[in-house]
Amino acid sequence: MDDAIAQHAADSHDLIRVHGARENNLKDVSVEIPKRRLTVFTGVSGSGKSSLVFDTIAAESQRLINETYSAFVQGFMPTLARPDVDVLDGLTTAIIVDQQRMGADPRSTVGTATDAHAMLRILFSRLGTPHIGSPKAFSFNVASISGAGAVTVERGGKTVKERREFSITGGMCPRCEGRGTVTDIDLSQLYDEDKSLSEGALTIPGYKPGGWNYRLYTESGLFDPDKPIRTFTRQQLDDFLHREPTRMKIAGINMTYEGLVPRIQKSMLAKDREAMQPHIREFVDRAVTFTTCPDCDGTRLSEAARSSKIKGINIADACAMQISDLAEWVRGLDEPSVAPLLTALGGTLDSFVEIGLGYLSLDRPSGTLSGGEAQRTKMIRHLGSSLTDVTYVFDEPTVGLHPHDIRRMNDLLLRLRDKGNTVLVVEHKPEVIAIADHVVDLGPGAGTAGGAVCFEGTVEGLRASGTLTGRHLDDRAALKKTVRKPAGALEIRGAATHNLRNVDVDIPLGVLVVVTGVAGSGKSSLVHGSVPARAGVVSVDQAPIRGSRRSNPATYTGLLEPIRKAFAKANGVKPALFSANSEGACPACNGAGVVYTDLAMMAGVATTCEECEGRRFDSSVLEYRLGGRDISEVLAMPVTEAEEFFGSGEARTPAAHRILRNMADVGLGYLTLGQPLTTLSGGERQRLKLATHMAEKGGVYVLDEPTTGLHLADVEQLLGLLDRLVDAGKSVIVIEHHQAVMAHADWIIDLGPGAGHDGGRIVFEGTPADLVAARSTVTAEHLAEYVGA
User: Fold this and answer.
1) pLDDT of 526-543, one tens digit each?
2) CA-to-CA distance for 234 and 222, rounded, in angstroms?
3) Domain ABC transporter spans what residues (predicted)?
4) Residue 69 CB neighbour total at 10 angstroms
5) Model-level pTM?
């Protein structure tokens, strides 16, 4: 009888066991995670949550799956090293939905990033009238080409010549090459046409009278430098602006002369906007205008592709529809010949609506999606999946979600679990922690002070545990007793970007303003579209910061510059010696600190460089000291220690101290100056960006969801920082969903009432107390519930 009850051996593997995990800052972490349950990982930003969930559990699962493919296929896949862990038991296939933003390639849209566009193209190539060709004929990424000629073929030992012709019909608009916009250079921003070159007509950064950039034009001999540009003949103007590169003698030196426009395109416009210096970025933003392509009217498609219709709608119209409307239209098509296609397309579109993205359209460029929207777009693939016993790994799935939308996300996570899957979520929001079956709290601090498990168990146990997360779980920011008085207003009139409906609003200045509303209601469109990027406006958006393993907080924030100069001055040598990417680099590893060996489809090996022992610098450089420390020791310091070091004594460097203080202010005191950017978490990168921008001289700060990736305890620190900015006379405009920030605001602007074409209006403006009292909007309901009103 007992044998019948005894558990089958196959059913005994109910745990994912991790023993001795040491990735990044983890200190021999051991946890047991129940399968087919929802486990939430919490802890302050930088405590090691992502290291445990993504870099250990998910990475090993992916690596093991990749090893099941043949060596040939593995050669095309990313190679993954085995994580630094002693035992990983009971792993199941992991499906990872992380926060990596989608590529901002101008040709990538919501439709191409999911399979919806591919299915639409097949649909139009089968049912569209007139019939114009294969699905390629509807793709704005395929250009039409044709050709003919002789080809040489070897057959049966003989060489035979044959004539061949080929043609591909693509759907790309020939004028804008499938981008939808054409760029124009505004010539009035390049020069003042009423002045002559001798009088300093050029207004481009770096083109100063007397410099080589300037002499190239004044001494070329192609036109008279003393005549105002407006009086040039057509030929002279063409030589000045558009001449092809020509070798000529200028001021007795052989040089290449090139027209002004192509020269600027090569030197400035070919660069990544993020990598430009601020004054050049400002010039490029002024000088380059993007206008909708006049041939295709911004649809990216050729005339032929737009001429083929189904029930009076062409593929461009279908992509421009709001997805919820497109789903209705697809349901109305009854064609047995393409029935499986219609079912699959309908299913994908319904998933968009269900996950709360029904307000997007398929032609929306994927680079314009916010972090949360991009993450939810990636989730669409897995919603209808009938796979079970899979591990789903989510990185803050509630980023960019209004409390109203978080409920839907919770239902979704529970549905995935109830199908028999293990769901692992890295999350800070108490609403999500509350639905967990099991909680793992990491900490106690961040960086080297973190990396240990503080608590494992139920949500109730976490509340009673006395850990940092447990103590702050029921924190509720109270509404302010008194709000600050505005010192003026920024007037916005007739804002109509994206889904905004001619919005008129006055944003008060000199106070803390929070712009809120459900996801897709038009918050970013209002703030980024209408608050001009003029001097004095510092905008910290959600674009991720890029960085190779050579970049670190010191190089990214510009902190290394004053440090190098201080070292150089103290030792009487040149600053380039103190850069691991320049002259001071260790010759054996080129300043990388490690030597990489590539092993084809096996994971590459990184070994610490034996010459410099991972310090990245040439040994001769390490003999130079400042305040008793060498450069590698300074880069190994945490921000708080470095702040003291550069604050007083022999090493006093005010420029460095200022940047370090900003980093400490945003809660990054535990980061070491030389930690590679690739090892920072999403929240840490966002705050590093905030620290860099705080150094800019600005009167208006625009912050886009600064609480992303912040622990409840860190949100208090952020509120203190926002208060300090306002008290210093700055105006702070925050786009935010976090109720603590809303409660702390002096003025709230609430957009809605819904998303997409149901949003785009202002449903409330006033103080948080009035919003709670009125309870007139979705935001008001949730804020009232939050403050316990």
Assistant:
1) 998 888 766 688 888 777
2) 12
3) 477-778
4) 13
5) 0.85
